[in-house]
Amino acid sequence: MVQRRKRQPDSLSIISGISVFLLSIPVIIILIYGFIVFRSAQGFSHTVLLSISLTLASSATAAAIVFAVFTPLAYELARRRNSLLETASDIPASIPHPIIGIALLILDSPITPTGRFLNYIGINFFDTFQGLVAALVIVSAPVYIRAAQSLFSSRRVEPELLASSLGASRLKVLYTVVVADSLRGVMSASLTAMSRAMSEFGSIAIVAYYVLQAPFSGVEPASVLIYEYYGYYGPQVAVTVSALMILISMAVIIAMRIVSRAKRKYSSGRVVR
Fold this sequence. Notes:
The chain is mostly helical. It has twelve helices and no strands. It has helices spanning 11-37, 46-79, 83-94, 98-107, 113-120, 129-153, 158-165, 170-181, 183-198, 204-207, 222-233, 235-272.
C-alpha cells in the first residue's frame, strides 16, 4: 500500500490561507454582529421572511430560465469559438447594473414601441415579479454561460460525433447526449447563477424596488430590504437580516459543492469501469 506523504505548508499555501481569511473577514463580522452583538428581533420578522422568500423564488426562477434559454449558447461557444458572441454575452457582467434596470424600464415603457407591445400582451416589468426575474436573468446569465461553456469544453466530443453521424441535429445532440450526460455539472452551473441572482441589488433597485403582485404584494427583495433597513434603523436590524442572507447563500454554495463533488465521483467511476 502506498502511503501519501503529508504535505508540508509552503509559502504559497500560507499566502493562499491568508487570502481566504481576508475574504472571510466581512462574512465572519456580519455573522458575529448579526446573531450575537446586534441581534434584533425585527431581523426575524414576517416581513424579512417574506423578503427572503421572494429573493429565493425569483432567483430560482431566473436560474431555471437561464438554463432553458442560454444552455444552447454555452454549448455553441464551447464547440465553435466566436469572439463576437463571447463579448456580447459578457457585457451584462461588465457594466454598472443600474443600467440594466434602466434599460428594462425603457424597454417596457408605454412611450416606446416595445413597451406598448409588451403592455398589450400583458407584460409589465415595473415593480412586478416579471421585472424582478427579467433583471436577475440578465445579470446571472453571463455567470451560467461561462460555467456551462467550461463544462462542455472539457467533454470528449466522440459521443457527440457518433450521435451526429446517426442523424441527430446539433440541438438534439445537446440535450440528449451532452446535457443528459452532464446533468450534475449543469445543475452546479445553475446554482452558481442562482447565487449570483440572490446577491443582485443595482438593477432590481430600479426596476423592481418592491413587488406589487400576489403573493408578494408590497414585498421587497432581500438586498433592497437590507438597504432600506440600514437607512431607516441604522446597522442593527440590517446586520441581522444580512447574517440571515449569508446563511442562506452559504446553503446554496454548499449544495453547489455537493453537486460538483458528486459529478466528479460519478465521472471518475465511469472511467474506472
